[in-house]
Queue: 2 jobs
Job 1
Amino acid sequence: MIVGFLIAIPHGVNNMLNQPKNALIYIFQSHFGALASGVLQVVVFIAIFSCVLANMVVATRITFALSRDKMLPGSKLLGAVSNSTHTPIASILLVAAVGIGINLLSAGIAANVVSICSVAYYFIYVLTVGGAIYAHQKGRMPGHRAQDFTLGRWFVPVAVVAFVYAAAVIVIALAPHEGHTAAIYLLGGEIVGALWYLLYLRRRIMNQTAGVYRREVVELEKESAAEVSAISPL
């Protein structure tokens, strides 16, 4: 698509850069007219709005899930589900406030925050795959049912390739001078997360008052298993 737009540039690159419209809209309108250009802008707006909405939903779900497991400050409030709407209203409002707040900041700060987004996704992949490799090496990988998909002996080679690939993308994105600002913002966010884990969260995970294996969850799973065993004819 990009190559096609480059080939379709009318009247030279200089004319395109010196006009006030978005470059892609300018190229499209030059070939297909104002009506088609307007339709394109509507489609692009809907696509961008859908992507933003999806990201907000994901952020809300992660905020609620972490709060449900007592992993965030204010977990009692953020992890609560409304009896009337059956939704985590506090998590939704928090994510909305953060999103609106970033957009109301100066353009420079907002651009710097946005610049880490694509790199942060790959950083999450690195942490996830790295954690899986660590758990596999320590023999702490959760078991699976017989019918579940598993990589088996191919797990380690695939995981290592995935880890190296994601790490390479991060280096390529952050190494150039243009990526240094994103690197600083990403590093700052990771330092805050590491301090939160080391100074507060790690102790709570170890004593099972936070995390997916906290005592209340384990006891609930045992009760559910006992109920199933009691009613099962086997």
Job 2
Amino acid sequence: MRINHTLDVLSKGEVAFGCAIQCYRSPEIAGALAAAGFDYVFIDTEHGGFGFETVQDMIGAAARSGITPVVRVGELLYSLVSRLLDVGAQGIVFPRVEDAAALEEALSWVRYPPQGVRGFGILPQYINYEQRSMKEVIAHMNSHTMTVVQFETVPALERANEILSLPGVDVAMVGPADLSIALGVPGELEHPKMIEAIERLIVQANEHGVVPGIQTRTVEQAQFWTERGMRFVGAGGEHGLLLAKAREAVKTLRGTKVPQAMPAAQ
């Protein structure tokens, strides 16, 4: 059965780097990100327009490539969480969390009894067709499935200690875009209000034994927050990386010294 590579990295106190897939409906992107060396791929079904079968293909491609498939659901709903896990997702991102009671229920959906209430329905290809007992599958999945809770609003920050104290929270991930709006500084991702609020959450997460994380928009932002203690760090999305690299390539090409054309033969 597959291990959760990202949980393994985090358990050693190291930093796990990932990249979001939000725009392009190709399972091969997960393989490319794995080849580049990312630890996890963050498949976004909150803002991305992917259908379930596309997400299933992305999860499968990630699994075959050795990169951890983590999926953000659009809302806290059991049927979304359970289906994604049954087709191989190794982590669930819960967005817009503010209510500890609602999150506590959602966390129970991720793991099988006695740790949770997840129904048993995982398909054989997602345990590599291994012949394992139900007890073995349950124990393995419960220890190799991760939960990521997003902090994106002022109420979430105000209730951070209550939320972070819930059993089963593995990662506290800041959503900086929405948080900047909530703090009244939309798009000012390095505003003092943002830095103060995020750094306070890093301290709180560490106090509760939860990994602090953030999904950034650029490599530079990812570096900025890694240097400040974030350990689950998303470095933009596939569309942003492609566009940035394409612009860099075109700029280089446009600056190439071109020899003068030879006169045409008579």
